[in-house]
Amino acid sequence: MNMTITADENRTYGYEDLPGLMSLMTGDEKHGPAATSTLDVLWVLYDRVLRVTPERLEDPLRDRFLLSKGHGPMAYYAVLAAKGFVPVDWLPGFGSYDSPLGHHPDRVLVPGAEIGSGSLGHGLPIAVGSALGLRAQGLHDPAVWVLIGDAELDEGSNHEAIAFAGPAGLERLHTVVVDNSSASHALPGGIAARFEAAGWSAVTVDGRDHEALYAAFTAPHPGRPHVVVARVEPKNL
User: Fold this and answer.
1) According to DSSP H, which parts of the chain are helical?
2) Integer Cα distance of 84 and 64 in angstroms
3) Domain boundaries defined on the chain
4) pTM to 2 decimals?
5) What is the C-alpha to C-alpha distance for residues 56 and 78, in angstroms, rounded to an integer?
């Protein structure tokens, strides 16, 4: 993999460039495991699934992607840079006083960020509200995607969101749970069952397998919200 990256507005970046892009972001409080656990999920979504581009940020028909796992945003910033949402030369300033790329994403400062995030348990409830709002406006085509960590499922706000979304039939709502075994109150293998019990469509896959992720992301789920549990290596290994 190419670990030497220089800013070039005419360059096209691929998955193989992501480690190099991430290496440009240095400093303390990086939450490295939180970032690297999401890398493959983010790449497959932005490269093959999400209908959003830097030119469509204000398009009401764009897909919405909400990063709830915002306390480790380096992979997110790297993917946004690779796809042209933010300049690559922003990356070395990550976390500095005058950088738009903070330790938690700021929707006002980061092009493409739909929400400010990082506090556990907020993203999925916001995604439920976003899906409801789009449906109320008669916008049935845009998809709402939210990426959460398995530890966020310890929060009661997520339990309420899961319980509501299934009976509400929020078909355009998609959740990706990156499972790196960091939850305090979870039974092994129980994440998908928790969503299924609330009426969701659920798939569990290897969170490093791009083809498996793509198949899970694009699986049909008529009349129901959809969750993909992406298992990656445990956080503490």
Assistant:
1) 18-23, 32-36, 39-44, 74-82, 123-136, 156-168, 191-197, 210-217
2) 17
3) 27-231
4) 0.92
5) 19
| Chain position carrying tokens 């990082």 | 118
The residue assigned the tokens 């998908």 is: 192
- Render pLDDT for 26-72 as a digit per residue (tens, 0 to 9): 866 556 667 789 999 999 999 999 999 999 999 999 999 999 988 88
Contact 226, 131 (CB under 8 A): no
Residues contacting residue 42 through CB under 8 Å, at least 6 positions apart:
75, 76, 79, 147
Distance linking the first and last C-alpha atoms of the chain: 23
pLDDT tens digits along 197-218:
999 999 999 999 999 999 999 9
At 215 the three-state DSSP class reads helix
Ranges assigned E (strand) in 29-187: 64-67, 144-149, 173-179
- Dump pLDDT digits (tens) for 65-87: 999 988 889 999 999 999 999 99
Fold of domain 27-231: Rossmann fold (3.40.50)
% of the chain surpassing 90 pLDDT: 74
Residue 10: C-alpha distances to residues 14, 16, 82 (Å): 13, 17, 11
CA distance 104 to 118: 5
Provide CB contacts within 8 A for 48, sequence distance 6+: 214, 217
Q: How far is CA 174 from CA 83, 133, 177, in A?
A: 21, 15, 10
Residue closest to 227 by CA, chosen among 235, 237, 236, 216 = 216
